[in-house]
Amino acid sequence: MTSFRAPGRPPRSAGLDAHSALLRAGGLVFALGGASRGSVRAVAAVAGLSPAALYARFGSRAGLLDAVLAECGPGVVIGACDRLHGPGDLPAFVAAVWEAWARPLPRAAFALYLHRTGALPDRVRGCADLEPGLRGPSEAALRVLTRRVARWPGLPAPPAEVAWVIMEGLLRLRAAPLSAVEGTLQSQTHARAVQAWVTGGERPC
């Protein structure tokens, strides 16, 4: 059966395409200008749409940032924590985070952001180096991860430090220009290295 629509009315898929285009544009603009500085007008221009289209779908600039972070930000870690009950679950945890971060939007937005700012600390310093737009969600994700890690017996370091080692390795993977296959292999290596450390081995480099 053939479906019809009124003349001049966009196809049903147009709304979904605009949503995706605004998410991608938001990720790119936030990466280039910073999560606290990208403007609605800039995002709309990159997406090839009007600012009104952004407001209609996300309500505000803050709503768009929340949507971008939900797709590829620290909230991914919070979701992945559901499968993290002990060191034995580390590979599954890392795989869940990597799978989410390996998609085009997070690769374009936050890998570029990390390259631009050099926001990865060399030592355990939490999320102090991240700009305000990302610091709060990152700290929330780390708190959740720290609480899960704190349940494990015989940790080689304080729970917050162990949680950051897990997270830092994934951030480094996300910031590197890797293919999906390379990223998967390195994420597995990282998971095994942390797993070995928390069960009596050497600390990962």
UniProtKB/TrEMBL annotation:
<feature type="DNA-binding region" description="H-T-H motif">
    <location>
        <begin position="39"/>
        <end position="58"/>
    </location>
</feature>
<dbReference type="InterPro" id="IPR050109">
    <property type="entry name" value="HTH-type_TetR-like_transc_reg"/>
</dbReference>
<dbReference type="InterPro" id="IPR009057">
    <property type="entry name" value="Homeodomain-like_sf"/>
</dbReference>
<keyword id="KW-0238">DNA-binding</keyword>
<keyword id="KW-0804">Transcription</keyword>
<dbReference type="InterPro" id="IPR001647">
    <property type="entry name" value="HTH_TetR"/>
</dbReference>
<protein>
    <recommendedName>
        <fullName>HTH tetR-type domain-containing protein</fullName>
    </recommendedName>
</protein>
<feature type="domain" description="HTH tetR-type">
    <location>
        <begin position="16"/>
        <end position="76"/>
    </location>
</feature>
<keyword id="KW-0805">Transcription regulation</keyword>
<dbReference type="Pfam" id="PF00440">
    <property type="entry name" value="TetR_N"/>
</dbReference>
